[in-house]
Design a protein that fits this description.
Elements (H helix, E strand, L loop, with lengths): L1 H18 L2 E7 L5 H11 L2 E7 L2 H9 L6 E2 L3 H9 L19 H8 L8 E13 L1 H8 L8 H4 L1 H7 L4 E3 L3 H11 L9 H7 L1 H9 L2 E2 L3 H7 L5 E5 H10 L4 E3 L5 E9 L7 H12 L1 H11 L10 H9 L7 H4 L2 E3 L5 H19 L2
Parallel strand pairs: 1-2, 1-3, 5-6, 5-7, 9-10
Antiparallel strand pairs: 4-7, 4-8, 4-9
Helix pairs in contact: 10-18, 11-18, 12-13, 15-16
Length: about 350
Amino acid sequence: MRRLSLLVLLGVVAFSVQAQEVLRVLNWKNYIDPGVLENFQRDTGVRVDYQTFTAADELDQALTRGEHFDLVVPSHFQLARLIKDRRLQALDMHQLPHYASVDPELLAMLAGFNSANRYVVPYLWGTVGLVTNPELAEQAFGGPLPNSWSLLFDEQQSARLAGCGIGLLDAPEETLSLWLNYQGKSLARSSAGQIGRAGKPLLELGRRIGSLDNEAYIEDLSQGRLCVAMAWVGHALTAAKARPSLRYQIPEEGALVFIDSLAIPADAAHPELAYRFIDYLLQPDNARRNSLATLFYSPLSSKSPELAQLAKEQPLLVPGQADRRRLYFLEKLSPEQKLAVDRLWQSLKQARTSP
């Protein structure tokens, strides 16, 4: 009798393990508060098969290979193509009780990408702006610093600051877009020849910059080896943890913005679980926690009490309306424009190493 009871018990346990619901997620690396993920599994009983990537094309490749996920996190510039190729399913917002907590301005911005607001929900977002170390930079500059890309892009100003270290991201399209925007021009509306001509002054800047990097510059900022640099907001705030005097700003001329969103692939095996996870992430306190953990902006509405709390905990994670009005998306380039940008960037890198 004991043997029979044991066999029955083992059978029940085995069935429970097999029957446990599994949600397959593909997200950017280090892009969630681990506690939020653990709590979702505890609260729902759903096991999350959580996988990560570090570059947007890795997500594209995974979907192209036919890998199956219930939830993915594409960036805004991927959405028009993913929607056109029918890789995402339109969302039923009635299955997301916390959808009302999302910032309407972010939804309006996503609407411009093939009506992407019907297919995705904002998760985290951020900017490419300017970070300064006033302690070092003001001494080299000779006074208070303007909130302007001129600190990097004006020949005389950047020459004054070169001694305390200036840096650019190794991001050709972003840098060229900001460089042309600083001059009142548009990268997308420039021909390949115009891009080459307009970018020539950058070659001289290439000889002065101390850092052309997307990762090591974080430590350079925190250790005082750079006094002015172009930066992603999350990186700037990470460096500021070690050196609180660092200041991240949206320059007067404007800065780039990006939005990463939650989406359900068209072939998702468990869309009902994806809806549960999306809504869990949209719960205002969870959205606040994810922002604090990653140091990127929250998707919460400006009227949310949790966003007000986040502003008290980390003010730089809640950009004001004046800053928001100066943000714009990176433009889509033609193959000819992209080739011109890449050629110019290679020349800039060569200028750095030339004697």
